[in-house]
């Protein structure tokens, strides 16, 4: 059944989008869990909680995006590190989008942490897909 679903999406060139959204959802879940554990369990500040959530979710996202979404192959350590460096650089840009939208929503518009986090994650997922598709995982693809 799963294989039929995969073939159905692949014939419509939607498999990559599906896997990105699936693993993006898991990455967002990692981000939210770490954020709220840091915030509620350890009583860390907003910036510390969000930064820790970002670091752990970026590491998770790199592995899943490289292997299962974009099926990127790199030859040698230098190529791998270059790809990882680009990934971290563009994720840093999206971190500032995340942090800026969080601070704007919480401090200026007085929304709750959860609503601000969800809104910021929608913006981040879209930006990260575009960065990954067009600027990061541009090397060889597995067949």
TrEMBL record:
Membrane-spanning residues: 12-36, 42-63, 88-108, 114-131
| Main location, first listed in the record | membrane
Pfam families, per database record: GtrA_DPMS_TM
Q: How does it sit in the membrane?
A: Multi-pass membrane protein
Look up the domain of life of the source. Answer: Bacteria
Q: Name one GO biological process term.
A: polysaccharide biosynthetic process
Question: Where found?
Answer: Membrane
**GO CC terms for this protein?**
plasma membrane
Going by the UniProt record, its keywords in alphabetical order are:
Membrane, Transmembrane, Transmembrane helix
Record-annotated GtrA/DPMS transmembrane domain positions = 20-137
Give the record's family classification.
Belongs to the GtrA family.
Name the UniProt record assigns to this protein: GtrA/DPMS transmembrane domain-containing protein
Species in which this protein is naturally found: Enterococcus asini ATCC 700915
């Amino acid at each position: 059944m799963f294989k039929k679903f995969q073939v159905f999406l692949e014939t419509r060139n939607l498999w990559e989008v599906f896997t990105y959204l699936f693993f993006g959802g898991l990455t967002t879940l990692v981000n939210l869990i770490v954020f709220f554990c840091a915030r509620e369990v350890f009583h860390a500040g907003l910036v510390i909680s969000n930064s820790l959530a970002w670091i752990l979710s970026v590491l998770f996202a790199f592995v899943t995006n490289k292997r299962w979404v974009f099926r990127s192959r790199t030859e040698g350590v230098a190529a791998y590190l270059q790809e990882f460096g680009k990934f971290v650089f563009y994720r840093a840009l999206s971190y500032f989008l995340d942090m800026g939208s969080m601070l704007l929503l919480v401090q200026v518009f007085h929304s709750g942490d959860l609503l601000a986090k969800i809104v910021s994650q929608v913006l981040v997922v879209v930006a990260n897909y575009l960065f990954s598709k067009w600027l990061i995982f541009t090397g060889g693809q597995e067949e």
